[in-house]
Each structure stands twice: as structure tokens, then as C-alpha cells.
UniProtKB/TrEMBL annotation:
Keyword Phosphoprotein carried by entry: yes
Keyword vocabulary terms for this entry: Phosphoprotein
Residue numbers of 4-aspartylphosphate PTMs: D69
Protein name: Response regulator receiver modulated diguanylate cyclase/phosphodiesterase with PAS/PAC sensor(S)
Domain GGDEF: 327-460
GO biological process, any: phosphorelay signal transduction system
Domain PAS: 155-199
One term of GO molecular function: cyclic-guanylate-specific phosphodiesterase activity
Domain EAL as annotated: residue spans: 469-723
């Protein structure tokens, strides 16, 4: 269409318009007679009396036929004819010369310059009518031809544009499978040039492993619904187009159809197969995405091990195979024993790296037919199909323990990892997936409870303990709604002041079946199940309520200490919750002391330090419980805002009449004095221990010598009794500490309940 001029395009756009005839003659009567002679329906007759006027009309209007006189007043009719033919229109106006000039040279000149006919005046009306009719009919055919040709050109240009601009690979092959055409996409897609492929066989670009599959679509003879559609084929790339070192090809979705030529002369009803036409779309990125999604759906993103979904599927197949063909199937549940230390000390990035290294070692401990999967966190599972004996699983477990016994490198330091492994066997320990995993899990927890770093096979008696544990967990969840928790209090006394200065709140669970349970029976379970936060909130609320009651009775200097789990410092609202309780019961901040263990200091994270600093800024006291039994780093005392340290009862217990000297206690007392900290000794049970500690410089104590933990009612009686003996002097108190409480009548040598 771009090659056609404006006039021709206009003509094609008005293909059904009337034929236009221009009569050019300087004699008005001649123009009128021709108009009357040629006037018919479907014709438009125009007139011009000079050559210049005719040219002006031809410039502005599409004329089909010009009846042109040679002798004109301004220019010759032959000049007008030359102007018409020189324009280069795809469909110029047809010209009939109508003139009195009988010179043969004029006629020859006119015909050579494009005139269709030469008629001399005077003319026969029938002759001119016949010639005009013939020329207009031929003109109609020419217009149709030009229109069809234009449409074909436009279609070809559009087709070529679509083919060359297509993101797909488009090609044709001859009947021997050689390329006869291929679009430019081949260069950007595979790196081949079109010139080097034209005439080459299709196997030039097909990956060797796919040649057999590609043979049929690249020589496709079928057409219609039976032709090749959406077949995946891998095509080779030139080295310059390798996407990476591992991927030297692309994946295409190919469709093809047969091409047939004219009828065979020998077989008039058959068409000759001339080749194949094909389209190939690059789906490499889609295939990679699909494979990635499929991999992620069945594998752990960190270690790239199978996840539990894939593990259970393979376990189900192994169980089915075992039922049909006999044999045993082993299931291992592996839990790393000391992984949490890495996360808490070095961060999650170091923990993730350790998990990947552990997974790498575990892979080398199992057979090719086994499946190692990551369950989550630091837990792994192993499927051991086709075992001849149950003991074979023990060999693999020992291999795992030996491999993990080799130190890992964590943050540039050697780190020893151990594992607790539980093993369940099909069919003796169950034949369902859930039963086997539960049995292996129970066996693993038995290893944990027995000191970790080992393996055990599941036995039926373990299930009883597991059932009890689940039952206890369910009952623990109902303890608060059923008001089964109670707080006991153990006094903290000042030897110099001969008075009770504080109380440690100790939780008890009055279980409806098992009776009164100490924290050791359920606190660990509460931490594992995530219930410790709810329990701690209850303890804080109850302790603050009770302290407010006692302070309202006149014990205004009394303070209370509450043990807080390290997990509580992971809560974002921990500080606000404590402050809320203090505000609710209108208690001064320094009347509450939060007792923490040294383990929380190991976390050494900015969030823990910030929470502790905020508590101290708000006046709440912080003490380290059981000081000296764990790490006792002086750097912790310098970095963390500690107000009190408590000497553990294990050191106090070593004091006796024969051994009144304790270098450890002396060191702890010196540390407390050096850092300006309060000091309190726990577990004081004898007069000797009390007197020795006081002599060494420790004034505040708690223990069975003064009172065992008791309910609030008994503590209240003790507080009232203390007021009535305020005249006691320290020497008398050191000699008769039982005067502090009439409740001490026996059992001074008993071990503490908490």
C-alpha cells in the first residue's frame, strides 16, 4: 500500500463510484454533443475547454476516461496526454484522442504516448459509444486488478511483519527435512544465522537426546486436528548463547503441519507433500519456574532436602511395598541437642549455615535408597526402606552420631553438635505414617530425657509416658481457667535488722488427681508448649495483688521476688506488662524484683539488654538466681543492669561445723561488694550456715532455717509475729532464728521444695 500514490488510494477506497469522463475540447457544441451521446446511468461527465483547465481537473479529481482534442487554445492535447502518462499513477486515466488532425504522425505519437484510441472528426456516434464502453469495461477490470494486487501486497507485508516480528521461531522445511525458510528469531534465540541454516537439516538445531522425538514433528505430514500440537523439544544453542554453564539448550513448545502443493498429474485426486510448516515458542523460563515451584513444593528451601510432604509420600510407598513383599522399614527422628545455643549466640545466619552443614554430613551416612528429610527447625527424619533386620537401623544411627561428633566450624570457632535419635520399625511399631512418626518422636524424647546424644528404638512402654505427657499438657491448659494454681511464699530475712525484708513467690499446681505439684513438674512443659507466658502473667498479677494487700496492712518496706522465664524476654510487651501490673496495684517499682537465671545473659542480644535497662530505669529490681552455677561472667555483671545476686544453695550446703571456710562464697561476696550489688544467700538450713555467711559479710538470707515456702495465710501470720518481736537484737536472732516464725517446729534439715 505504501507504493501507491494518494490518487490511486482514493480510487481504491471508492471502488464502486460512477465512472468519470472528462471531455476536453475548445468547441462548446462538440462538448455538448459528446455529453449527450455518452450520458448514461453510472457515468459522471465533466468538461474542460482548454488543456490547462483539463490538467487542473485531473489534479483534483479521479478521472477514468479523457476524450481529448489535440488542438486546444493554450497547449496541445498531446502535451496533456504526456502530462497524464508522466504522473506515474498505478491506474492513470485512459485517453481517447478525438481530433480533426488527420496526420498519421499525430496518431502514432498519441498512441505511443499512452492513448487508448485515436478517432478523427467527424466520427460515427456508434463507433465512439462502442469504444468508450470497451475502454470503461477494461478500466473496470484494471481497477479490480489493482485493488486485488494492492490487497495481496498489503497482506504479504503484514504477514512478513508478523513473521519477522514474532517472538516465536517460525520455519518451513522441504520434504526432506531441510530448512527453506526461518525467521530472524533464530538468531536471538539460538545464535544461528538464517544463512547457515537454510538448506540444512533440522537435526542441526535439535539436542541429540531429543532427535528421536523431534523426527516426527519436523517432518509432519498431517494437517488439521491430527497435526503436531504443543510438543516439547529441546533445541541447541551456539556457545555464545549459553544461558549458563549447565544449560546449553532451550525448551520450546512446537506445533507443525504438513504443506501440500498442486495435484500430481499421475494422481489427480492426491496432493503432493512439499514440506512442513512449524512454529516453536521458547518456554525455557516457564519450565525453570515450574521446576523451581515443583522443587520448592517438595523440598526444604534451606537444605534442599525433601520436606515432610515428600517424605510421607515415600514412606507410604515403602510401607505398601513392605506389606506386599515383606521386609522391614525404619523411620528415624533426629533432633540436634545444642542447636539453640548457636542461634542465641551467633544469630540465625550462623544457625542456617550449621543446618546446611549438618544436612550435608547426614547425606553421607545413609544409603542411596534412603530418604533424608528436614522436618523443620533442627529436626530431621530418615526413611530406611528394605531393612533385613531392625539392628541395621542402629548401625546407621551410630554412623550418624560418629559423623556429628566431628566438630563443625561456627563463626570461626569449633562447635560440637550431638543428636538425639528415635527409631521406629515397620511393622512392629505400627503400619501407618502418623503412628510411625509419633513412635519415632516419642523414642527421640526418651533419649532427650536420658541425657541426649544417643539413640533408642521405640518400645510400647514409651507410649504410656507419652500419653501421660499429652494428658498433663491438656490439664495444664485448664489449670488457670479452673483456678488450680496457687502461690507459696518463702521469706527473705535481714540478719542485721532481724526482719523479713522480702518474699520469693513460688508457684504450685494443686492438681485434682496428682495433688500439689512443684514447678519442676510442669514449668518445662509450659515452656515447650508456649503456655509459660500466660502462667507468668498470672503469677505476676497474683504476686502484685498479694503484695499490695500486705503493704496496706503496714508492711510498707516489703518487696517480692518473682522468677521470670528467659522466654518472657522474647515478648515485645514484656516491659509494658510488668509496668501495667505495678500500676494496677499501685506498687512502687522497687517493691518488685525480677529473678532471672544466668542462661538469659548468654543471649546477649540488644533486645534483652534494652528490656533489662528499661526495667531498671523504671525502678524494678533485677536479680541473678543461682549465681555461680553456670557461667558467672564478670562481663555480664558489668554489661547488664543487675541489682542483686543470689548465692546458690549448693555452695551454702557445703558449709558445716567442720568446713566454715568457702573460697567460692568469699569470691561471690567480694564480687557483689565490688560491683555495689545486693547479696542474698539461698538454701540456709542450719545455724552454722547462717552464722558463717553473716561472718563472711552476707546479711540477707532465705531458707528452711527461717521458713519453708508457705501459703499467703501462713506468711501473713509470720509477718504479724515479726512485728511483735521488733525489740530482738541481732545477737539474739543469730542464736534463736526460730523466734522469727512460730511455724518452724520441725524439719530444719529438709531440702527445699523449690
Amino acid at each position: 500500500m505504501n507504493s501507491l500514490n494518494t490518487t490511486t488510494r482514493a480510487a481504491l477506497e471508492r471502488h464502486d463510484r460512477p465512472h468519470s469522463i472528462l471531455i476536453v475540447d475548445d468547441e462548446p457544441r462538440m462538448r455538448t454533443s459528446l455529453r449527450i451521446l455518452l450520458q448514461e446511468s453510472g457515468r459522471e461527465i465533466l468538461e474542460s475547454k482548454s488543456g490547462g483547465e483539463a490538467i487542473a481537473t485531473l489534479k483534483t479529481k479521479q478521472i477514468d476516461l479523457v476524450l481529448l482534442d489535440i488542438i486546444l487554445p493554450d497547449i496541445s492535447g498531446l502535451d496533456v496526454l504526456e502530462w497524464i502518462t508522466s504522473r506515474g499513477d498505478a491506474l492513470p486515466a485512459s485517453v481517447i484522442i478525438v481530433s480533426v488532425d488527420d496526420n498519421i504522425d499525430s496518431a502514432i505519437h498519441a498512441l505511443r504516448n499512452g492513448a487508448s484510441e485515436y478517432i478523427r472528426k467527424p466520427y460515427e456516434p456508434e463507433v465512439i459509444q462502442h469504444k468508450v464502453r470497451n475502454i470503461l469495461y477494461r478500466r473496470h477490470l484494471e481497477r479490480d486488478h489493482v485493488l486485488i494486487t494492492s490487497r495481496l501486497q498489503h497482506s504479504e507485508q503484514l504477514h512478513r511483519f508478523l513473521v519477522e516480528s514474532s517472538p516465536d521461531l517460525i520455519f518451513t522445511l522441504d520434504n526432506s527435512g531441510c530448512f527453506t525458510f526461518i525467521n530472524s528469531r533464530i538468531e536471538s534465540l539460538l545464535g544461528f544465522s538464517r544463512e547457515e541454516l537454510i538448506g540444512s537439516c533440522y537435526d542441526t538445531i535439535v539436542l541429540a537426546e531429543d532427535l528421536k522425538t523431534a523426527q516426527h514433528p519436523f517432518t509432519e505430514r498431517r494437517r488439521g486436528n491430527r497435526a503436531t500440537t504443543n510438543l516439547e523439544i529441546r533445541l541447541k544453542c551456539t556457545p555464545s548463547h549459553y544461558r549458563n554453564f549447565e544449560n546449553h539448550h532451550i525448551v520450546v513448545m512446537m506445533s507443525s503441519t504438513g504443506i501440500y502443493g498442486e495435484h500430481d498429474n499421475d494422481f489427480p485426486l492426491a496432493r503432493c507433500f512439499s514440506g512442513t510448516y512449524g512454529v516453536a515458542r521458547d518456554i525455557t523460563d516457564r519450565k525453570i519456574a515450574e521446576e523451581t515451584i515443583a522443587f520448592q513444593a517438595f523440598h526444604d528451601h534451606l537444605t534442599h532436602l525433601p520436606n515432610q510432604r515428600l517424605f510421607k509420600d515415600r514412606l507410604e510407598m515403602a510401607i505398601t511395598h513392605s506389606k506386599r513383599h515383606g521386609g522391614m522399614v525404619g523411620v528415624m527422628f533426629i533432633d540436634l541437642d545444642r542447636f539453640k545455643i548457636v542461634n542465641d549466640t551467633h544469630g540465625h545466619a550462623a544457625g542456617d549455615e550449621l543446618l546446611k552443614n549438618v544436612a550435608h554430613r547426614l547425606r553421607h551416612c545413609i544409603r542411596a535408597v534412603d530418604t533424608l528429610a528436614r522436618k523443620g527447625g533442627d529436626e530431621f527424619t530418615v526413611l530406611l526402606p528394605d531393612l533385613m533386620r531392625a539392628e541395621d537401623a542402629a548401625l546407621i544411627a551410630e554412623k550418624i552420631m560418629h559423623e556429628l561428633g566431628i566438630p563443625f566450624s561456627v563463626a570461626g570457632q569449633k562447635f560440637h553438635v550431638s543428636a538425639s535419635i528415635g527409631i521406629a520399625i515397620v511393622p512392629r511399631d505400627g503400619e501407618s505414617i502418623d503412628t510411625l512418626l509419633k513412635s519415632a518422636d516419642i523414642a527421640m524424647y526418651r533419649v532427650k530425657a536420658s541425657g541426649k546424644n544417643g539413640y533408642r528404638f521405640f518400645t510400647p512402654d514409651m507410649n504410656i509416658c507419652y500419653t501421660k505427657r499429652i494428658s498433663l499438657e491438656n490439664e495444664l491448659r485448664q489449670a488457670i481457667p479452673n483456678s488450680e494454681f496457687e502461690l507459696f511464699y518463702q521469706p527473705q530475712v535481714s540478719i542485721n535488722g532481724a526482719s523479713i525484708i522480702g518474699l520469693e513467690a513460688l508457684i504450685r499446681w494443686r492438681h485434682p488427681t496428682h495433688g500439689l505439684l512443684n514447678p519442676g513438674d510442669f514449668i518445662e512443659l509450659a515452656e515447650e508448649t508456649g503456655m509459660i507466658g500466660t502462667i507468668t502473667d498470672w503469677v505476676l498479677a497474683e504476686a502484685c495483688r498479694q503484695l499490695a494487700h500486705w503493704r496496706s496492712m503496714g508492711f510498707s518496706d516489703l518487696r517480692i521476688a518473682v522468677n521470670v522465664s528467659p522466654k518472657e524476654f522474647e515478648r515485645d510487651d514484656m516491659v509494658e506488662q510488668l509496668s501495667r501490673f505495678m500500676s494496677t496495684f499501685q506498687l512502687p517499682p522497687d517493691s518488685l524484683e525480677v529473678e532471672i537465671t544466668e542462661k538469659i545473659l548468654l543471649r546477649d542480644t540488644p533486645s534483652v539488654i534494652n528490656k533489662m535497662k528499661t526495667l531498671r530505669e523504671r525502678g524494678i529490681r533485677i536479680s541473678i538466681d543461682d549465681f555461680g552455677t553456670c557461667y558467672s561472667s564478670l562481663n555480664y555483671l558489668r554489661q547488664f543492669p543487675i541489682s542483686t545476686i543470689k548465692i546458690d544453695q549448693s555452695f551454702v550446703r557445703d558449709l558445716s561445723e567442720e568446713h566454715r571456710i568457702s573460697p567460692i562464697i568469699q569470691a561471690i561476696i567480694g564480687i557483689a561488694n565490688g560491683f555495689g550489688l545486693h547479696l542474698l544467700a539461698e538454701g540456709v538450713e542450719t545455724h552454722c550456715q547462717m552464722q558463717t555467711l553473716h561472718a563472711l559479710g552476707c546479711n540477707e538470707m532465705q531458707g528452711y532455717l527461717f521458713s519453708r515456702p508457705a501459703p499467703a495465710e501462713q506468711i501473713e501470720q509470720m509477718l504479724c509475729h515479726t512485728i511483735s518481736h521488733t525489740t530482738l537484737q541481732s545477737p539474739d536472732f543469730l542464736t534463736h532464728p526460730q523466734l522469727l516464725s512460730p511455724l518452724l517446729t520441725q524439719g530444719l534439715q529438709e531440702r527445699p521444695l523449690a
